[in-house]
Amino acid sequence: MNPCESPRTKRGAKLFGLATTILIVCGLALAGPALADRNQCAPGGSESATPVPKDLSTIGGVGQDDNHTTPTVEPLSAVNVDALGLGTRGVLNVGTLSDAPPSICVDATGTFSGFDNQLLVAIAKKLGLQVRFASTDFSALLAQVASRRFDVGSSSVKATPARRRTVGFTNGYDFGYYALVVPPGSPIKNFSDLAEGQRIGVVQGTVEESYVVDDLHLQPVKYPGFATVYGSLKTQQRRLGGAGGVGGQSDEAGRPGGGGRECLHPG
């Protein structure tokens, strides 16, 4: 999901009204990456798809929490662009990531892409706005939107009551589940196999961090971004027993050569 308006200001209160979640406030943009050393968005389309976990529908409570609907969302046809309070007229400055495919990624030309960003570009086109992407860490993204450094944060952000007190959200447009990536040969097959003292890497500020602390009652090792946590798992720099993430974004780390094996668990 993507966060939108801030409760501290009504300037950008009426954002995009469709099934997306994009942070909106305002601010300045940073320079994006030059050329990518590889295409993080490949493969695309159906080739990047993975099966839904077999036990996804058997876990109690899945799909029952509706934190992803925002009653004040308006349809695109009703959005007044002049009332969005953008930092630069006609330009949507977007804070995004570069290391969370298939939702957010950088292609071989150095262009920010992925499902979330392509959806945002399509929305902006309908509103007659240009999009200016800038790379940042997820751990800083919500605060940067709240401080109006960015108009929007694009990063598959899950709407939670705590986050809604800081930034606004559009309606949800996707669903996900937690995933645990473990080193090859690990005896850990599921979250229930984790024990006290197990070192689990997470991205700081994510719902995965909250899940590890509040539900699993473990103290995670925190990282600023997805690339660093999965890279640390692969190289075993900090002797991680696993890395928590969202199913889909953690698929690449769980593939052969990715440094781990993915254990899926509905979230």
Automatic annotation (TrEMBL):
Q: Which domain of life is it from?
A: Bacteria
Q: Which UniProt keywords apply?
A: Signal
Protein's UniProt name: Solute-binding protein family 3/N-terminal domain-containing protein
**Chain ranges of the Solute-binding protein family 3/N-terminal domain:** 91-262
Family annotation (Pfam families): SBP_bac_3 (PF00497)
* CDD domains xref list: PBP2_peptides_like (cd13530)
What is the residue range of the signal peptide feature? 1-36
Disordered: region residues? 40-72, 240-267
